[in-house]
Write a structure and sequence with these properties.
Elements: E1 2-18, E2 24-42, E3 47-52, H1 56-59, H2 66-78, E4 84-89, H3 100-115, H4 121-130, H5 136-141, E5 145-148, E6 153-156, E7 164-169, H6 176-182, H7 200-207, H8 215-221, H9 224-233, E8 240-243, E9 250-254, H10 257-265, E10 272-276
Bound molecules: 4-diphosphocytidyl-2-C-methyl-D-erythritol 2-phosphate (SUD) and adenosine-5'-diphosphate (ADP).
4-diphosphocytidyl-2-C-methyl-D-erythritol 2-phosphate binds near residues 23, 135, 180 and 246.
């Protein structure tokens, strides 16, 4: 069995408060890109994980891969032995604000729920996901959603117009806690959602003032992000250039997937870059 683990893109990210445990309350519109990792699982006696793909090297030293943590958490919740030979084909840059590890964990939950016949369904999978990381519940859904709370409060959003997405990362990892720590003090109000957006340009205009409250802090820690944003904004047809999550990956919003793909090809080849459409809904 296999599952696609698409990149999560925070089109806007507002920090609206903080909790006593140090976590922050967010208001974010998350969408999923047509690029991602692939998680496969087969029956086996024990629990193993093999890594492949261009990003495998970056994860080789990871002592506790989120895929294995997800497998153990699902087995414990369902009361079954954790038995599977799992493979992870890694394409997304690690620690880059597009939730690659979270997407892998979510895909592992979906795939193993099928392989083990545990049939826990979306609500219980989401609860297990919340214990694995703030971004994992939205990745279980892998469709456009508004994230609130620390990420576990999910709401459907009005239908999005068609658009193209470009992703670019200067191949510099950025740790999420460091970016939250470097943020200037203060909180933003929650966003007001319209009933619909007429087209991609209207979506970009709505997103523009909402911003990403982590972007300035991330640029302070990792100045090349500013160059990535400028290069994306300079591409023909770019409607909005912004950082996703805690960075360093930035995205560009375009009218069509073809325009985003052409723009990605024009960016420096030394960067990780991708352009195309949003992810198809997961089964
Ligand atoms: C910022 C976001 C926005 O979608 O994306 P990424 O940059 O990770 O892609 C997420 O909230 C990240 O989610 P995730 O990466 O799963 O976070 P976790 O592992 O739960 O937490 C890592 C650390 O980030 C900080 N954190 C995370 C989420 C949150 N709502 N408030 C926080 O302050 C905390 O310092 C926490 O210890
Ligand atoms: N399968 C995985 N893919 C990526 N990172 C993983 C994975 N498993 C564990 N990690 C750890 O999680 C951290 C955050 O990774 P990632 O989800 O890629 O970050 P972000 O949410 O900022 O995009 C990494 O630095 C790595 O140590």
């Amino acid at each position: 069995m296999s599952g696609f683990a698409p990149a999560k893109v925070n089109l806007t990210l507002r920090v609206t408060g903080s909790r006593a445990d140090g976590y922050h309350l967010l208001d974010s519109l998350a969408v999923f890109a047509g690029v991602g990792d692939v998680v496969r699982a087969e029956p086996a006696e024990g629990l193993t994980l093999s890594l492949a793909g261009p990003g495998a090297g970056a994860l080789a030293a990871e002592p506790d891969n989120l895929v294995l943590r997800a497998a153990r958490a699902l087995a414990a919740a369902a009361g079954v032995p954790a038995r599977a030979a799992i493979s992870l084909e890694k394409h997304l840059p690690v620690a880059s604000g597009i939730g690659g590890g979270s997407a892998d964990a979510a895909a592992a939950l979906r795939v193993l729920d099928g392989l083990w016949g545990t049939g826990l369904g979306p609500a219980r999978l989401r609860a297990i996901a919340a214990g694995l990381g703030a971004d994992v519940p939205v990745c279980v859904e892998s469709r456009p959603m508004r994230m609130r709370g620390v990420g576990e409060v999910l709401d459907a959003v009005p239908p999005l117009p068609p658009f193209g997405l470009l992703l670019a990362n200067p191949r510099l990892a950025l740790a999420t806690p460091a970016v939250f720590k470097a943020r200037a003090p203060g909180f933003s109000a929650e966003a007001d959602y319209p009933d619909r957006w007429a087209d991609a340009a209207a979506l970009a205009e709505w997103l523009r003032p909402l911003g990403n409250d982590l972007q300035d802090a991330a640029i302070a820690l990792c100045p090349p992000i500013a160059d990535v944003l400028a290069a994306i904004a300079a591409q023909p047809g770019c409607l909005l250039a912004r950082m996703s999550g805690s960075g360093a990956t930035c995205f560009g919003l375009f009218g069509t997937p073809a325009a985003a793909e052409a723009a990605a090809a024009a960016l420096p080849a030394s960067w990780w870059r991708w352009g195309g459409a949003t992810a198809p809904a997961s089964p």
